[in-house]
Amino acid sequence: MRDQIETMLRHYERGHVSRRDFVYGVAAILAAPTLLVARPPTSVFQARNLNHVTLATSDLARSRDFYQHILGLPVLKQDGDGLVLGAGKQFIGVDLASKAKEKVGIDHFCVGIDGFDADKARHSLAAQSLEAFTEFGSGVYFYDPDGNKVQVSAPDYQA
């Protein structure tokens, strides 16, 4: 910053810039650091991680075999209608489309948030005019403006 001001001063002293332009330039240089710092808007929750993504599939075995073969994801849990594939500390859930009551594709994604409390999360979402609901007894769900289903839970939530 000091070098920039010295350069502006040399230009002023040599008559290359007016006094007014010099003052504006110095003011801009001094203000720049505060303008460049991104200030996030006040948020309802503080995200810590992308906890998991759950896919809806028409063929559970085919999806399991595909993700194990292509990505090497181990099966952490499996029942008749769904399975959980490990991906480090996160996971990918795979449910039959009939269980998820959705078309084949991404059913939802889950964001781990600080201090997760289901009742508080529902209340906070309601204060934002968002309808919150619970499925399968875990986390709190809501829809974004485009209709994508979002889940919030504790950052260390495991299915």
Q: Would you write up a description of this structure?
A:
It is a single chain. The chain is of the alpha+beta class and 159 residues long. It folds into 2 domains: 35 residues, no CATH class; 107 residues, 2,3-Dihydroxybiphenyl 1,2-Dioxygenase, domain 1, CATH 3.10.180.10. The chain has an 8-stranded mixed β-sheet with strand order 2-3-4-1-5-8-7-6. A hairpin with a 2-residue loop joins strand 3 and strand 4. It starts with a helix and ends in a 6-residue tail after the last strand.
Summarize the structure.
This protein has 159 residues and is an alpha+beta fold.
Write the layout of secondary structure elements.
Elements: H1 2-13, H2 19-36, E1 47-57, H3 60-71, E2 75-78, E3 82-87, E4 90-96, H4 97-100, E5 105-113, H5 118-127, E6 133-135, E7 138-143, E8 149-153
Parallel strand pairs: 1-4, 5-8
Antiparallel strand pairs: 1-5, 2-3, 3-4, 6-7, 7-8
Helix pairs in contact: 1-2
